[in-house]
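Shipment paperwork, digital attachment
Item: protein structure file
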Amino acid sequence: MRINKYIAEAGVASRRNADQMIKDGRVSVNGKKINECGIDVNPENDTVLVDGVKITPVRRYTYIMFNKPKGCITTAQDEFGRKTVYDYLEQYEGKGLFPVGRLDYDSEGLLLLTNDGALAHVLTHPSFGISKTYLVKIEGEIGEDALKKIRKGITTKDGVKYAPAVVSVKEITPAYSRLEITITEGKNREVRKIFEAVDKNVIFLCRRKIGELSLGGLSRGSSRYLTDKEIAYLKGLEEKKNTKK
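Attachment content:
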């Protein structure tokens, strides 16, 4: 088993974040620190430590939906003492849950947490094209030219390319515009940077859907377990990924 998959199945982090942990020298195998992401480990015989703590793959997975409010970060700890999503999720302590992707400090909405690293990889890696839908409020009016650029796929001033997005207008006033936008890449702060590229400042951002999973009526700061139907849907995405290999 690849070391990043082992770490993910232990509920420590997604595969992508596991790779970064390895590069940062936080992982050791049989007492030897490693810095190569491509090595294999034997779950039966090898001992794997992360930050000096022994880890083992999880055999029972947990899936949580959380409506993240503004004013908290999507990490376990913060050097500046800011509130984190885990301050709202104490009832799940000990399950080894980690966020599937991120929402920044000033954004809110649907956040999934799990200890299923393989599934987290499918949901977050841009190559799988899992859609994410957001409600957005920007300053001022937005014109048709800007909307066409976003729908076609935009390149920022620093050369970052973003795939075409589906965007619809909900309301336009002289003071603000409200829109719905669906993206499939999930790059860092993608929605905000897309609008920055057409000289628009985002003043409200809420993720409402990931694929077919919807926030529904879940109130801010609240969480729930995913239903069997929702888990089956996510597993279906993972199966599609595996059949494409």
